[in-house]
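Dear Dr. H.,

I hope your travels went smoothly. While you were away I took the liberty of generating a structure for the chain from your last submission, since the lab meeting agenda had it listed for discussion. I wanted you to have the full record in hand beforehand rather than looking at slides cold. The sequence, exactly as received, is reproduced here:
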Amino acid sequence: MAKKLKKRVKMDTGFKVENIVASANLKVELDLFNIAMKLDNVEYEPEQFPGAIMRLKDIGTTLLLFKNGKVICSGAKTKKQIGQSIRRAADVLQRFVTHV
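The corresponding predicted structure, in token form, is as follows:
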């Protein structure tokens, strides 16, 4: 019979926040085609993915923009970066709101 080894493994319980993902709803309809055509930091390939991808390099985040006004922010390491990213997106996207 094999003896079980009882060895305690030391675990480092420290951690570092690498990525926070947050969602927001701008409560407007967005014209993703127009946004991608006019903004250099936005890609939109609807045959690949239904959302547009907005990269905010200065903040270090990426936002997924959806036609229904929902936004997913990823890449943030702090709540402050999330707030900055969502506010920036809302300000920039204001002129692309589809009025029904």
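Two observations you may find useful: The chain has a mean pLDDT of 92. Helices lie at 32-38, 79-93.

With kind regards,
E. W.
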